[in-house]
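Friendly challenge for the regulars: who can give me the structure tokens for this chain first? No prize, just bragging rights.
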Amino acid sequence: MRKILIPAGILLAILYLAFLATIAWAMRQPPETFARVMSKMPVVGYFVLPFETLWTRARVGTLKPGDPAPDFSLATFDKIAHVQLSAFRDKQPVVLVFGSYT
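First reply, four minutes later:
Bragging rights claimed.
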């Protein structure tokens, strides 16, 4: 029985680590790639992975208080134009709000 359990345990550990590495990699990718990977993840994966810890470490970033925000461009709500953050630099204050209002 031991000859079966030890190799099976090693195989499961390798599969778990590979799964963990794949999710950790996906969390460092652009949102589209991350969403594509996560859409294929089995539901049980959310229960067996340290998801919050992985996410916190993957998205820690490098900005410090007082650093300028990185430049980015977003479509307006009506999708007619784009607004770029750098266009407001030295002209008016900009408040960035992140979150969900649902």
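Residues 2-88 form one domain. The longest strand covers residues 73-75. Your move, everyone else.
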